[in-house]
Amino acid sequence: MDLDVFASHQQLADIEEDELDEEHRLAGATTAIIVLGAIEARRLRAERRKPSRLYLCRPQLLRNPRGATAWQVLYRTRNDRAYITTMGFDVTTFDTILEAGFGQHWNNTPIPRPDASKRGKARLGGRSLDAAGALGLLLHYLNSTMRKISLQQIFALIPTTVSRYITFGLEILLGVLRQMPSASIQWPGHRDKFQEYNDLIVARHPRLTGAFSSIDGLNLMCQTSADEEIENATYNGWLCEHFIGSVLVFSPKGKS
Fold first, then answer.
1. What is the pLDDT along the chain (256 residues), one digit of tens a residue?
2. Strand pairing of 235-236 and 214-221?
3. Which residue pairs from 98-103 have beta carbons closer than 8 angstroms and sit at least 24 positions apart in sequence?
4. Structural domain boundaries of the chain?
């Protein structure tokens, strides 16, 4: 009987040891699964963030933004077709905006920075672009839907500089355009003007009697607003991006 009891105890001990080993194996497998899951989750988060991390650093760009960059080559051609293709304006209009106040404000207004006083003097020697380059950057940005990485290559600027110059320059450009009579959109003021425009249209399209202008739509990309109503109003489901829709009216003479 003693041998039988001993054998039974030994069998129970073996069974308990096997169960403990199985528990250890399960615990180890569970730990491995958790660790692998965490690693995979980190990898997926990194993959999702990659599109927002696509930018160029200084070593991948031309050293001097005021040197032989793509923008400087374009600017020096003084070619109407090239200016209109890239910026939407001919050489004369570009110079007019520059001389109407944009150049003066760019040269005399300090760029707002969180680590610098707003009352200080503008440090032109520390800016990567002169006034013409800043205006060119803005018009490239407004005239196309190109990504900022393309602007970095064209103007040889790092991402933070591109964003800072666009934000700062847009305020200057808006103020200058508001003071330019030729930049305003005006409705014909007299019946004779309506008739003049209609005569021009009828000469080309005889059936369009009564027409005096043409309409063109323009979608300007904008940032996603934190306000849910504004975010919903600016979202374009067809293009899957956020835009501000504008409608421009042009007379047969090309004026807005």
1. 454 544 555 565 566 566 666 666 776 667 767 777 777 777 666 666 555 556 777 777 778 888 889 999 999 999 999 999 999 999 999 999 999 999 999 999 888 766 555 565 666 667 889 999 999 999 999 888 778 888 999 999 998 899 999 999 999 999 999 999 888 777 888 889 899 999 999 999 999 898 888 888 777 777 788 888 888 888 888 878 888 887 778 888 876 6
2. unpaired
3. 98/131, 98/132, 98/135, 100/176, 100/179, 100/180, 101/175, 101/176, 101/179, 102/131, 102/134, 102/135, 102/172, 102/173, 102/176, 103/131, 103/132, 103/135
4. 58-183, 191-250
223 with 235: CB under 8 angstroms?
Answer: no
